[in-house]
Amino acid sequence: MDIHHFFTAEPAGQALGRVLWVVVVILTLVPGLIWYERRLLSWMQDRIGPNRVGPKGLLQPIADGVKLFFKEDITPTLVDRAIYFIAPAIALFPAFALGGTLPWGPDLNWTPISNANIGILFALAVSSLGVYGVVLAGYGSDNKYSLMGGLRASAQLISYELAMGMSLAAIALISGSLRMTDMVADQTKPLFGVVPFISNWNIFTPWGLISAAIFLVCMVAETNRAPFDLPEAENELIAGYHTEYSSMKFAVFFMGEYAAMFVFSGIFAAVFLGGYDPLIHIPTANVGWLWPLIFAPAVFLTKCFLGISLYIWLRGSLPRLRYDQLMSLGWRSLLPLAVANFVLAAFWMLAKEVAGPYAGFGAWAIAAAVLGGLYAALSRLFNPKNVLADREVIFVNEAAPRTIELVETGVGQG
Amino acid sequence: MAVVPLAGLAMLAAIGVIAFKSPVRSALCLVLNFFMLAFLYFSLNAEILGITQVVVYAGAIMVLFLFVIMLLNSGGENILGEKRDLKFGGGILLGLVAFGLIAGQAFFPLLSIATPKADDHFGSPQAIGLNLFTTYAWPFEVASILLLVGIVGSILLAKRKL
Asked: Which of A11, A141, B65, B147 has its Cβ near the most Cβ atoms within 10 Å?
């Protein structure tokens, strides 16, 4: 059969082409991402970073890859062999499958892989599968630290999955569809329904902004990136779930993490930043095929890189959360906020139905007031004022409160 | 006909759940089983049902199962070893009888179905949402209250003092 005909006309060939395109792009970008992260992070930390291998250190990931290939592949004796070896593969699979419903451009022949009616639910489902690789690696390694890492990963994922789902539900409500292409198309409408030349990205609306903030926190938590990298906290758990993995098995985990970062940034871009939409309405009809095949994916990829830069920025600036802080943030702050946001989005839709687009501006003020009030109430409820501050501490062994005496020693003076 | 391989894999996985002695492997087989069921739903055009199966069972409940198994770290595989006595044979016999009864009920009606496929919009999110909030609004709300009671009850059980 003619190969060109197969990839352009046959439905199966088109599907294969779409899959190949996404997988090849992600696989090509991952080494670049690793270099980018190391350079950006070192710039943020006032270091130089890898700059010796190739121009600007660009070939460093390849050198690292070669090193990982030729490292000794150690398998501990007492591991649960089947689970131990299958875990990296299971960790890699969801990272790639996650992008299955993600539109890269407007041409439905090329993207997304499946324009299913359940697009955003599919992303949620697959992202919750990402934890299996980590959990199985932790269990199969027969190592206490790995097991702790796996345990932490599963608890963390369950906690943040809920808030993530609720934040996306608000957007699904606004868009009126679970299909990701519909969500992107919905965001190309005029801003707030009244400004004609700027697109109405979800992040410009109050509920969209709050959803975006919640989703951002949850997506960092789901990809086990700093400051939520408790499953591999190196100061407590050596390397967490991949302690016992060496050589290429470790590289597969690493690759999965970066691929997941990339695809999650893509989902964030598609749901909140208008996908491949360039914000300002430009006439796209007269550039022909250049727009759907080159410019639109370029806009989309730019947004993905912004997301990844944000990931790295967070890693560079925030310390790792303590375990109870992680749980408290997920259950006590993000989840109630996401539910309140969901209800408010519904009210806004009702207001718009009844009173037209300008009612949206009034709804903004109400939304801000209600959400702010709710958040204040929740923080009051769950963080009662610091009891330790006004509790009197009496030391049993010390009769009198200790006073600091200044002793002149003469050392360091003169 | 995607049904036969999917159903076969689902059955193999289900047998694996009870045949493996390691609790983690049993749980993994259950995950595989849920996946195959989800694929069955997909092949029948019931997209939302299939994805809900994955989100709820494979994504949440089984992760919790694994969490508990790992937390207890029930490494003692011997605990799950069973004695082979008369009850074992009796169980197999009764299982075969039940299988025969169900298969006898289901096999012949299934043979007469030509296209086991629903209409295009049968399992779509819109159709399901519409049904849930119109025809089945009452059972839907009752189920949600039941779930709420369950949540409150579990918090009461878990926390001595609120």
From this structure: A141
Residue from the list A82, A117, A150 with its beta carbon closest to the beta carbon of B70: A150
The Cα–Cα gap between A250 and A246 comes to 5
Using alpha carbons only, give the angle B23, B28, B33 rounded to the nearest 5 degrees: 125
Task: Assess contact for A213 and A205: CB atoms under 8 A.
Answer: no
Q: What is the pTM of this model?
A: 0.82
Q: How far is CA A345 from CA A80, A168, B129, in A?
A: 48, 11, 18
DSSP letters, A233-287, are -HHHHTTGGGTT--HHHHHHHHHHHHHHHHHHHHHHHHHHS-TT--SB----GGG
- Nearest beta carbon to residue A124 from set B22, B55, B71: B55
Q: Which residues of B touch A129 (CB under 8 A)?
A: 54, 58-59
pLDDT 10s digits, A262-290: 999 999 998 888 878 787 777 666 666 77
Contact B118, B48 (CB under 8 A): no
Across the interface, whether the CB atoms of B60 and A128 are under 8 A apart is answered yes
The confidence band for A401, taking pLDDT boundaries of 50, 70 and 90, is low
Q: What span, in angstroms and rounded, lies between the C-alpha atoms of A246 and A74?
A: 6
3-state helix, strand, coil in chain B (%, to 5): 75, 0, 25
- Partnered with residue A195 across adjacent β-strands are A191
CA-closest candidate to residue A87, choices A77, A75, A98: A75
Does the pLDDT of residue A74 top 90, yes or no? no
* Residues from chain B contacting residue A83 (CB–CB below 8 Å): 24-25, 28
- pLDDT digits 0-9 by tens, A287-303: 667 777 778 888 888 98
Query: Which residues in chain A are contacts of B63 at CB distance < 8 A?
Result: 128, 131-132, 135, 154, 157-158
Report in angstroms the alpha-carbon separations of B63 from A4, A88, A89. 44, 17, 18
- The CB density around residue A63, as the number of other CB atoms within 10 Å, is 14
Indicate the pLDDT class of residue B94, thresholds 50, 70 and 90.
very high
CA distance B68 to A151: 9
Looking at chain A, which residue has its C-alpha nearest residue B124? A117
- Specify the pLDDT at position A414: 45
Q: Which residue of B has its CA nearest to A82?
A: B25
Q: How far apart are CA A277 and CA A296, in angstroms?
A: 7
| Helix locations, B82-122, DSSP H | 86-111
Question: Which of A8-12, A221-225, A231-235, B6-10 has the lowest average pLDDT?
Answer: A8-12
Give A178's contacts in chain B (Cβ within 8 Å). Answer: 125
Nearest neighbour of A125 by CB, restricted to B51, B73, B125: B51
Task: Give me the pLDDT at residue A48, please.
Answer: 85
**In terms of Cα–Cα distance, which of A212, A206, A207, A237 is closest to A224?**
A237
Three-state SS for A393?
coil
Contacts of A111 (CB under 8 A, 6+ apart): A18, A21, A22, A102, A103, A104, A105, A297
| Contacts with A138 from chain B: Cβ below 8 Å | 70
